[in-house]
Amino acid sequence: MNAHADCHLSPTPPPNLAPPMPVPSPKLLPSSTLDTRTSLASRLTRLALIAAGLALAVAGVLLNVALYFQARDTLVDDTVAQARVIAVSSTAALVFGDAAAAAEILGSLSNVRSIDRATLFDRTGAVLSEHHLHGPVVHARSESMPVHVADYLLRDDWLSVLEPVIHGGAAVGQVRVEVPMRPLYLKAAATAGVTALCAAVALLLAYLFAVGVRRDVRRIERRMRDLAYVDTVTGLFNRNAAGEHLAESVRAGQAGGEGFSVVTIDIDDFKKINDTLGHAAGDALLCEVARRLTGALSPSARAYRFGGDEFVIVCPDPNGFRDPDCYGHRIGEALGGAFLLDGRLLHLGGSVGVARFPIDGSSASEVLRASDLAMYRAKANGKNQVVVFDAHLRAASEQSLRIESELWLALERGELRLFYQPIVELASGRTVGAEALVRWQHPQRGLLGPADFIDVAESTGLVVPLGGWVLAEAARQLARWDADGLAPMQMAVNVSARQLGGDVLLQQYRSAVDAAGCAPQRLEIELTEHTLVDNVDVNLRLLNRLRDWGVSIAIDDFGTGLSSLAYLKHLPVNKLKIDRSFVDGLPGDAGDHAIVSAAVSMAHALGMQVVAEGVETRAQADVLCGLHASLAQGWLFGRPVDAQAFAQRLRDQDAAQSPLSICTAA
What are the start and end residues of every segment in region (Disordered) (predicted)? Predict the structure, then answer.
């Protein structure tokens, strides 16, 4: 990948692993919604405190009023009781007009600090004796009052209680006791102050508690915002943040601002590193990738991690897309240096796709999708490449979507067909098996071969239900031919790597043979070398379970894989199917001859049968006979045909008295 001079990017950082990047400052995060929610919560908190304060104030006023009236009533009752005691004690003094005795009786009030003045009146209303808080006074003043009155009077600052003195059923005088109200008012004021202080302390504590809770809530909200917008492994912004940033960039661009580029990066073969070295090592590697990516960007660009090993970069492009793949190539160079991880030097590549707004899409989702499509094309082109989205990719994407939609309908409407290509025994020339090949009877485009739709089925996952249908239909066809009295034979069905996940293949296979009443030995499964070695340990357990059921297993396209020989002796395989690319060179190509010869010898040594694929000429068949290959298929023996034509072939073969041996004829 060559750098472009006008990229304006910083030099590539050195290839040393760094610790995980710090989480970006929250002020850079999209936060308008959270800020609004926080402000509203603060206002609600203040409103709750005001309401609590008002409630406390009202409750305090009511409490103090109640306490005041209770204390006043108690004071009146106590004063009336005291006046009655004095009235009883003063009867003799009033009857005899003994002022000294009256003064002595009133003097006993010296210990009652609440009574400020007590006056004893005779029957005429004249003062016989009077007592002040500081001592008795005899005839201190010429004051008279009407007698025979029992009542009390409340003035602003005094309580006056009148009590008649009764002797022989008649009033002989009257007692008046006066108590100041000031102590009661002071007590009420003190009670109100204490209540207000308690309310203030309660409100302060409530406020401090609310502030603490609000602080905790804000901290949690910040943490939640970080989790919502920041990748916890690398510290880069995540998919959510990218979505908001792209939406803002699109709005700015539509309002007359500049365009931008979106670069999608997928680390090639990262899963293999993760599985081999562990997730901790994989996370450390992702951190270093993030550091290098951010180091390769201009200040106005921003990097995001979308999950797994996928990164996205949004680059403002003020130059009118003069060099749209500038960032893509420079990013590829940033990832090209060696990575030092746990003492190992690792070399990574990245498949990079570039799309531009508004050229490749008028919305954030369209530009992202265009960038993704370009990245997948880079990966399909051999990885570690940069692809810029163009009209051809858009057309291919639209066609893929159309095929996917129509293929779903084809499964529902029964538009799929199976064609059968004969597998011939070279020694006898007899058809001993068939390979089931799927075709699509398209309502507008006619009969379509696998090349027109299998890639879409694989990429979208449709190959799983499609593969299940092929297994079921192949088993049903074997049962039909048996019912027609045709010679028993074996049917080979290709299986996708997608079907190997979980127990999908086991369930599909068991359902197919059980429903058709077909013996498992007759429905053979074909797997490519690449499918087998992709996850060999898991696949080995799956194949052993199939083998336990009696299922025949064949390796298709043998020789095209580079790492399967180490596992071949451990795999429960019955057949090797030599890829047609090696058969094409026969008989003239010495290299192909040596490869085919070695494959046949190895298969025989391991107790396997050999099927040569793509046999088109008699000369090729002669070479295979000389190498003692047992089975072959190809156009020399017959092209794929429908079930009816294949059944007729079998009838013709049964009618022949002595079928021609290809090897004998050779």
Answer: 1-25
Four-residue CA torsion sign, 78, 80, 83, 85:
negative
- The pair phi, psi for residue 119, each rounded to 5°, is -130, 135
Which class would CATH give 420-438+467-656? alpha beta
Alpha-helix residue ranges (DSSP H) falling in 517-627:
529-534, 536-548, 565-568, 580-583, 590-605, 618-626
**Which residues lie below 8 Å from residue 383, measured CB to CB, with a gap of 6+?**
268, 269, 349, 351
At 239-272, the pLDDT tens digits run 989 888 899 888 888 887 778 889 999 998 888 8
CA 494 → CA 55, 468, 498, 597, distances in Å? Answer: 79, 11, 12, 25
Q: Which residue has the higher pLDDT, 470 or 8?
A: 470
Question: What's the pLDDT tens digit per position in 74-112?
Answer: 878 888 888 888 888 888 888 888 888 878 888 777 777
Tokens read off for 137:
């006074």
Domain boundaries, the chain: 5-18+233-389, 25-229, 420-438+467-656
Q: Is the pLDDT of residue 418 over 90?
A: yes
Q: How far apart are CA 48 and CA 40, in angstroms?
A: 12
- In this structure, the number of other CB atoms found within 10 A of the CB of residue 129 comes to 27
CA 645 to CA 642: how far, in whole Å? 6
Beta pairing partners, 526: 494, 554
The reported pLDDT for the residue numbered 422 is 97
Strand partners for 230: 237
CATH number among 3.30.450.20, 2.60.15.10, 2.60.120.260, 2.40.30.30, domain 25-229: 3.30.450.20
* In contact, 288 and 237? CB cutoff 8 Å: no
Could you give the CA distance from residue 327 to residue 9 in angstroms, rounded to a whole number? 8
Tell me what pLDDT residue 564 has: 56
- Segment 8-15 mean pLDDT: 34
- How is domain 5-18+233-389 classified at the CATH fold level? Alpha-Beta Plaits (3.30.70)
Question: For the segment 346-395, what is each residue's pLDDT rounded down to a tens digit?
Answer: 888 888 899 988 888 889 899 999 999 999 888 888 888 888 898 888 88
Q: Residue 305: pLDDT band by 50, 70, 90 thresholds? A: very high
pLDDT at 477: 97
What does the pLDDT read at residue 362? Answer: 87
The answer to whether the beta carbons of residues 644 and 651 sit under 8 Å apart is no
- Count of Cβ atoms closer than 10 Å to residue 479 Cβ: 16
Contacts of residue 392, Cβ cutoff 8 Å, sequence gap at least 6: none
Are 610 and 575 spatial neighbours (Cβ–Cβ below 8 Å)? yes
CA distance 447 to 434: 20
How far apart CA 268 and CA 367 sit, in angstroms, is 22
Enumerate long-range contacts of 566-570, CB under 8 Å, 24 or more apart: 567/532, 567/533, 567/536, 567/540, 568/602, 568/606, 569/606, 570/540
| Chain length of the chain | 666
Residue 657 confidence class, pLDDT cut points 50, 70, 90: low
Compute how many other C-beta atoms are within 10 angstroms of the C-beta atom of residue 420: 27
Amino acid at 634: G
**Dihedral of the alpha carbons of 118, 120, 125, 127, in degrees to the nearest 10:** -90
Please report how the helices 279-295 and 270-277 are oriented relative to each other, as an axis angle in degrees rounded to 10.
140
Question: Distance between CA 341 and CA 506 in Å, rounded?
Answer: 40
CA–CA gap between residue 227 and residue 50 (Å, rounded) = 35
- Find the mean pLDDT for residues 585-601: 92
Going by DSSP bridges, is the β-strand pair 523-528/553-558 parallel, antiparallel, or unpaired? parallel
